[in-house]
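hey m, so remember when u said the tokens were messed up on ur end? i reran from scratch. heres the input so u can diff it against urs
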Amino acid sequence: MRKRIRAALVGFSLLLLLTACGGQQKKELGYQLDKPAAGEEIAVMETSMGEMKLRFFPEAAPKAVDNFKQLAQKGYYNGITFHRVMNNFMIQGGDPTATGTGGASASGAPFEDEFSESLINLRGAVSMANSGPNTNGSQFFINQAPASSFSGWEYYQQGYDVYKQSPDAFTTQYGSWVDMSKISDTYKKLYTENGGNPTLDGAYSTTKKGHTVFAQVFEGMDVVDKIAAVEVDGSNKPTADVTITKITLEKYQG
């Protein structure tokens, strides 16, 4: 009888833990760099410059993942260009007008941000592009900034110190910054070793604004780098189109 009671209490405690975490156990910061599990659904993105493979994170960004999958399945992204390319920063696509102002979500309406403390804009992270809070549609970008271009944490700490002196003035001039009071050693190490763009992390932002991470490139970052290195005009638009040929969903074989 005591064993049954003890087992019931353990099960109840686990249920409370899962409920507190939204029905999911919280993932460790950095898990986005792990390879997919065998049988996990991934995206294969074929471009005019090569192929890349993406791992999804539906447990943290279910709306963004579902939106991307729906658009991919109906061929929405086929033939669309990477209309904004900034070497050592990111490559952006998903706009059928190639202007940076077009595109729509699978439902036709903007959807809200899904910031996670466990998913950040490391090199290779695939994130929703937006025009402000909760304005996600079809556009996305892939963080390309390598570790060699990372500014270092002293730079971000100095900026944060200035922010604390006059938050409103700083935000008006510079926008969001990294809230260094929230930054752990693990977070610092991930960016130092991998590169990426910490000022885009909504969960760690001084303004609580940012970009939802919903996938990670786990194969094909060499292709991302090739796209990032193309010649661009004054608006960061490639002078020769770089297109998404198609995006297919398939099971990862391991």
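this time it looks ok to me. The two ends are 45 Å apart (CA to CA). if urs says something different then somethings off w ur setup not the seq
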